[in-house]
């Protein structure tokens, strides 16, 4: 089996699974309980928070554990809008955000907020100048993803952060879910107020994540209940999940430099191979692109048919975002980039991990060429 769908989810590290099982079976107490078992769980939770904070180069008090990217994005966006609604009701985002951001913005629109959706160029990138032009007196939040989950375009987070240094009242949320461990991001230097990460994107477990909330930045919680996560996220804490998240992030960060270089080499190899196959057009840009994502279109071919044909060869890739791949609609990101609808409907995404190899890439290129030729014969 060759697994090239790592942007959808990654295989958990064995060490992550082991840590989850150990904590779940031996330190299963409720961290809020007063007895010793509860105290042990609370200590593990604190240690996990400290580890994540150290790896992200922020304070432990700025890390809040969540159930993943969707919750983190919703908490940052809706929480910021709620607590600042009397100061202003204008938010800025891009036209190519993940559904968890887009849907949160659309919900706020129904509640009377106004959203500016910034356009992207043919590479899928916004302009920092457009961000500044869109800012108004009533702007309260800007939310921009670090790495596009469909085509891998890296957005100008540093440039936007520099602009916002002149606008201290505007909050800045970054969805770093696809970039963590693969594309560097300094939360402090780039003036980020909120940042979402999701464990299963870097070999952690599904249902685990974290939200960075800069000290002094305020959010209204989404959940009502107890006072867990400093009243920001009520509900009994997933201690084993938090420990597993910290473990996955530590391993990923330790492999980041060598792993990223390896993925860049494999991505280049794939790009060269795909360029040599008739009818394939690569949508991922060469510049300002993450090392692990490569998106391409198949002329005159349905991507779903191609995906299943590759699966028969035990090669797993995907169409668009895993969150919207079953809707069978053209990629919104590609349409926003100016890609024709027919090409957007035939898009395929390859996404790598540190564990993929050049040998796998060679096999995949060969399989893609054979599959394309076979499907064309059937179609003709």
Automatic annotation (TrEMBL):
Give UniProt keywords alphabetically: Iron, Iron-sulfur, Metal-binding, Pyridoxal phosphate
Residues forming the Aminotransferase class V domain are 2-360
Name of the protein in question: Cysteine desulfurase family protein
Which InterPro entries does the UniProt entry name for this protein?
Aminotrans_V_dom (IPR000192), Cysteine_dSase (IPR016454), PyrdxlP-dep_Trfase (IPR015424), PyrdxlP-dep_Trfase_major (IPR015421), PyrdxlP-dep_Trfase_small (IPR015422)
Which GO MF terms does the UniProt record name? cysteine desulfurase activity; iron-sulfur cluster binding; metal ion binding
> In which family does this protein belong, per the annotation?
Belongs to the class-V pyridoxal-phosphate-dependent aminotransferase family. NifS/IscS subfamily.
Cofactor(s) recorded for this entry are: pyridoxal 5'-phosphate
